Amino acid sequence: MQQVRLGVIDMMLLNPANIEAIAPKLGVINIPYQFDDYAHAHRVLDTTGSEWLQAEFKKAGFQQIAYFEWGFRALSNSVRPVNVPEDVKG
User: Fold this and answer.
1) Is the pLDDT of residue 9 over 90?
2) pTM assigned to the model
3) Which residue has the higher pLDDT, 54 or 67?
4) Is residue 29 packed enough to be buried (19+ CB in 10 Å), middle (13-18) or exposed (0-12)?
5) Helices (H), the chain
6) Are 17 and 30 in contact (CB under 8 A)?
7) Of 47, 49, 43, 17, which Cα lies nearest the Cα of 32?
8) 87 CB-near residues (< 8 Å, 6+ apart)
9) Which of the four pLDDT bands, split at 50, 70 and 90, describes residue 86?
10) Are 64 and 37 within 8 A, CB to CB?
11) How big, in percent rounded to 5, are the helix, strand and coil portions of the chain?
12) pLDDT tens digit string along 17-49?
């Protein structure tokens, strides 16, 4: 990210786990269970969600040109499967 800011490289693929390093508000994209399915995620991220994300990237000094699916609900643990929010209690 720093190399893009300095102009050393022109672009990057940003891992969602590191998105909050650019701007804390962008971490909202990583909230588990905020989308019902991929279609819901695309409806949000292709419209108002995209506009908001682009504005936040711009405030942080970046230009978002696209996004790619990294998956969502990618949450696991070594105790039990995670299928609903209650599964992560404790």
Assistant:
1) yes
2) 0.68
3) 54
4) buried
5) 2-6, 38-45, 48-59
6) yes
7) 17
8) 80, 81
9) confident
10) no
11) 45, 0, 55
12) 788 888 888 888 888 778 888 899 889 888 888
Residue 17 makes CB contacts below 8 A (sequence gap 6+) with: 30
Tokens of 41: 């995620």
**Total residues found in the chain within this entry:** 90
27: nearest Cα among 15, 11, 16: 16
Which residues, including other chains, have CB under 8 Å from residue 20's CB and lie 6 or more apart? 26, 27, 30
CB–CB of 72/41 below 8 Å?
A: yes
What's the gap between Cα 35 and its chain centre?
12
pLDDT tens digits, 73-84:
667 778 888 888
* pLDDT of 10: 93
